[in-house]
Amino acid sequence: MGMTKEVMLLLSPKNKNIIFLDLDGVIFDSYDLWDDVVKELLAMANVDYTDEIKKHLWRLNMPEAELYLAECFTSQNLVFQENLLKSLLVDAYRQVSLMLKAYEMLSDLHHQGFLIYAVTSNYHDLAQIGLKSSGVLKYFFKIISCIEIGFPDKTEDFYHCLLEKENLQDKKIYYLEDSLRNLKEAKKCDINGVFLSNQDNPQDSFEHDFKTIQTLDEFIEIVKEK
Hints:
The structure is a single chain. It contains ten helices and six strands; from the N terminus they run αβαααααβαβαβαββα. By secondary structure, it is of the alpha/beta class. It folds into two domains: about 5-30 and about 100-225, HAD superfamily/HAD-like (Rossmann fold, 3-Layer(aba) Sandwich); about 30-95. It has a six-stranded parallel β-sheet, sandwiched between helices. Helix 7 (about 125-135) links the parallel strand 2 and strand 3 (about 140-145). It is globular and about 55 Å long.
């Protein structure tokens, strides 16, 4: 049975307060997940997963990271199989853990009436698999993958496109991210960014002027203050 006109109107972004949430490193506790997948993949090419490689991959978006990993295979005269990387990631996201207090935060925001968008640099299907397997997909209105709508990364143009596509230009939006670069791009579109600090994140020591939180509980307090 389809939604009634009244229900669709109730769920319309025009009638809701909007939250954008990054997934990896914000909702998903996936830093180690990525390390494990890349380490396993590179081992097949007899390449050690060094700190240098790890730091380099941190600076890349998903398509760039895939190209870099392919070059690692090529350097060993091996053929890189994209479907192998995707298979490893699918298996990993089926078992992904949530960040501390992520479930409680999502439940709280949902019951307060916020419309929650997952805004990810990852593939849409991986995001959906992770959210579903961890039991929180029900709290999200939509999953927006920059890759799936034609942008390799979360750039200013991507955010403009997202706001236009969802008719959110006149909405006040709070956006929780663990990437300062993404927050700076979003700020150009008047999106209110909040930085989630994490000592495992190389960007954590960078200077910036975004509101910073240490735990997800603090994000709830920020949006309540609006």
